[in-house]
Amino acid sequence: MPVTRIMPTEESADLIELTREILGKELRPVVSELDATASFPRDVFRTLGRAGLLSLPYPEEYDGGGQSYEVYLQVLEEVASASASVGVGVSVHILSCFGLFTAGSAAQKERWLPEMLSGDLLGAYCLSEAHAGSDPAAMRTRAVLDGDEYVLNGAKAWTTHGGKADFYKVMARTGEGSRGISCFLVPADSPGLSADNPERKMGLMSSTTATMIFEEVRIPAERRLGAEGQGLPIALSGLDAGRLGIAAVATGLAQEALEVAVKYAREREAFGRSIIEHQGLAFLLADMAAAVASARATYLAAARLKDAGRAYSHEASIAKLVCTDNAMKVTTDAVQVLGGAGYTKDFPTERYMREAKVMQIFEGTNQIQRLVISRGLAH
Ligand SMILES: Cc1cc2nc3c(=O)[nH]c(=O)nc-3n(C[C@H](O)[C@H](O)[C@H](O)COP(=O)(O)OP(=O)(O)OC[C@H]3O[C@@H](n4cnc5c(N)ncnc54)[C@H](O)[C@@H]3O)c2cc1C
Question: What is the pLDDT of residue 4?
Fold first, then answer.
């Protein structure tokens, strides 16, 4: 019996098939090489963009794909099963367009959104700073109004696509406290904006992460999204949606690890039979399959709430927590199923394990998700 993958809905089946086809040709054959050389596959994002896969959850009137979040996340899971790095990249791009879509004026959306969703451009999201990760309200990067321009100074840490993106959604301080933060759309070619050397990470090697440095970067005031002081709510509501993206990415990664482990366990023999015939190992695989399926159910349930226009922040945190913790466990167990081979670079399981770890850290660490969930329970 085949390992159950995502069960496509009527709406998502063709898109998942298209994604599988594109990535089967362009990404899967090179994914280990990209990891080994820490190369960022910008051309793969262009192909995905031209196929309409970088704009799925946005309305067609802005050149988006007009799909529900439920469909978008299923496609994203498929992308991440081919490459977690590219899956994270797609999620971050979608997140970087979210502020303009939700908080931009009609004129701002008409002017910039179609270009951002055209598939040629890639976005990035700048919230974190070196001393302000879990606590973004402690940020120091400043935007000071000077005539009809803001002047930005500071540094935004950990930017996924830092130095590679075409535009940056940036949160910067225009006043004091958590209500003194505003949101800006900053073009990559703005004078004074530069990327520091990429971080040397343990995983997600083909996703570039760098600190973005702002030195007297002048941005027309019309590039501020929402009112002054609304930046943190804009950022945090984007993160609710972004957390669902990471949940889907983690599930795609775990699904792939499960499939590699099951295939190996069917073929590898010990004590005269395939290792999957040993109950001690088979039960490990059963728990992995249950972890993947139950994780998927949490992100789909939260996405359906979002699509129905209902509050979903609590469920998004549950999905992010469950999917990423399950992905860490499933990928770790996949290494175990492969034994010594799983610990080598001859098989992808060690990469999956390295990639899973960061999912518990970014878009709000899993401690922060527990904080959000428990606060919801207290009221
Ligand atoms: C590969 C990568 C890509 C990233 N991409 C982006 C990006 O594109 N844009 C962006 O803005 N940021 C990005 N980040 C940053 C990421 O969101 C932060 O790393 C994360 O929010 C944690 O912040 P921190 O690293 O400063 O950890 P800290 O906030 O210093 O936390 C350290 C530890 O303390 C725990 N902790 C902190 N506060 C509490 C609390 N109140 N209760 C319990 N435990 C707590 C944390 O859970 C963690 O375990 C990325 C990070 C990585 C590693």
Answer: 64
Cα(13) to centroid(ligand 1), Å: 35
Q: Each residue of 180-237: pLDDT tens digit?
A: 999 999 999 999 999 999 999 999 999 999 999 999 999 999 999 999 999 999 999 8
> How far apart are the CA of 213 and the centre of ligand 1, in A?
19
Residue nearest (by alpha carbon) to ligand 1 atom 44: 367
Q: Is 371 in the pocket of ligand 1 (CB under 6 A)?
A: yes
CATH number at residue 225: 2.40.110.10
347 in a structural domain: yes
Question: Which strand (E) or helix (H) includes residue 13?
Answer: helix 13-26
CA of 44 to the centre of ligand 1 (A): 28
Find out whether 196 and 211 touch, Cβ atoms under 8 Å: yes
Query: Measured from the CB, is residue 160 less than 6 Å from ligand 1?
Result: yes
Q: Contact at 8 Å (CB) between 63 and 117?
A: yes
C-alpha separations of 348 from 25, 190, 258, 342 in Å? 18, 39, 11, 8
CA distances to 25, 149, 293, 322, 345 from 333, rounded to whole Å, are: 29, 53, 16, 16, 16
Residue 318: its pLDDT value, please? 98
State whether 248 and 310 are in the same domain.
yes
**Which domain range does residue 359 map to?**
235-377
User: What's the number of domains the chain is made of?
Assistant: 3
Q: How confident is the model at residue 1, as a pLDDT?
A: 55
Q: Ligand 1 atom 14: the closest Cα is on which residue?
A: 158
What average pLDDT does the segment 53-78 reach?
A: 96
Residue 1 within a domain: no
Give the active site residues: 363
Assess whether the C-beta atom of 96 lies below 6 angstroms from ligand 1: no
- Distance CA(124)–CA(140), nearest Å, equals 19
CB 23 within 8 A of CB 79: yes
Residues 162 and 243 in one domain: no
For residue 70, report the distance from its CA to the centre of ligand 1, in Å: 27
299 within domain boundaries: yes
Is there a contact between 40 and 201 (Cβ–Cβ < 8 Å)?
no
